[in-house]
UniProtKB/TrEMBL annotation:
It comes from the Eukaryota. This is Cyclopentanone 1,2-monooxygenase (CPMO). It holds the Pfam family FMO-like. Signal peptide: none annotated. Keywords: FAD, Flavoprotein, Oxidoreductase.
Amino acid sequence: ASGLTAVKECLNEKGLVNVVAFEQMSYLNGLWHYVEYAQHFDLRRRIRFSTNVVEVKELHDEQKRWSVRFHPIRPATADASANITHTPEIQEEIFDYVMMCSDHHWKPRYPSFPGMDTSDPKANTGEKQHLHFYRQTDAFRDKTVVVVVFGNSAVELSLI
């Protein structure tokens, strides 16, 4: 979410037209209304999906530019967050500005409760779903739902 806002604001600034965002996932991730936000402001074309940044380094040259080293990644399974296989070709590009908008919630984590096997989320009885994998409301319609672990995405989900 913060990366999308940063890209849009950079594009709004006079002279900042060559804006690039690197995203590890193969799709837009995070709060759902930002997917529509990205479409509305045509931000997707600025995003390099399935890309892992491995180094950001100040060059200390006269222009005070930055080197960004990265490589494409491909999911090892259908669930890109579960296991990532890195491809070996490291690339480098030089930028005038760098904005760090990393999200520390990109890999789902499950809370630990007595009797719950956190090593295998499918091992427990009862219906549950991590918010990371939530896409549609149909499965939860007319049901009583509890949202555990309070965060921005959980708040947004509870409003649906």
